Amino acid sequence: MVRKTKEEAENTRKELIEAARRVFHQCGVSRSTLEKIAKEAGVTRGAVYWHFKDKAELFSAMREDVFFPMVERTDSFLLSENYENPLDAIEASLKEFFRVLDDCSVVREVFEIMISRCEYVDEFASVQEEIGRPAQEFLRKMETVYQRAADKGMLREGLDPLETARDTWAFTSGMLHLLLGCQKNRGLDQQISLMISTHMKLRRRG
């Protein structure tokens, strides 16, 4: 048997990740099997095990495939020093996150899978911990930016940077769950930009 080239192997891996996303989104993670994913990708089950040890590892790869680029993109706004007011950086970052979510169906599908199509039990308990770590990093980054705004006298008087960051973190998480969960397809996506602007306005001095 001719050994696959590195490029062919990488292409197969990408096809498996894309197939997993489609199957997870259609069937739900618990009802998805590696056999279904292999069939969707047009490969054998053995090919799946060549790249991933189990369904949880494939799920993590699918998440990372869109999650890390998203973090880099939003961080380019959140951590930018091009904004005179650090609160503008937070607002731009949040709006960019939801803009990408609206524009890119692949990103949206992955977040829908994580929020409403996966039970984080058994082998997926550790996956939930993986998902939680970037959220904690996001919280720490926002605290830093809110502290920068406070140091510049631009944060509303009496607001603590950490508590304000936690509030924005909860606000963002809540909007995400409403948008992709119980309020899906109810026009919420058309109100998000204004909601973010209002949320940030309440944190601005003056």
TrEMBL record:
Pfam families: TetR_N (PF00440). Residues 33-52 bind DNA. Keywords: DNA-binding, Repressor, Transcription, Transcription regulation. Residues 10-70 form the HTH tetR-type domain. Gene3D superfamilies: Tetracycline Repressor, domain 2. PROSITE patterns: HTH_TETR_1, HTH_TETR_2. InterPro entries: DNA-bd_HTH_TetR-type_CS (IPR023772), Homeodomain-like_sf (IPR009057), HTH-type_Tx_Regulator (IPR050624), HTH_TetR (IPR001647), Tet_transcr_reg_TetR-rel_C_sf (IPR036271). GO terms for molecular function: DNA binding. PANTHER family: ACREF/ENVCD OPERON REPRESSOR-RELATED, ACREF_ENVCD OPERON REPRESSOR-RELATED. This is TetR family transcriptional regulator.
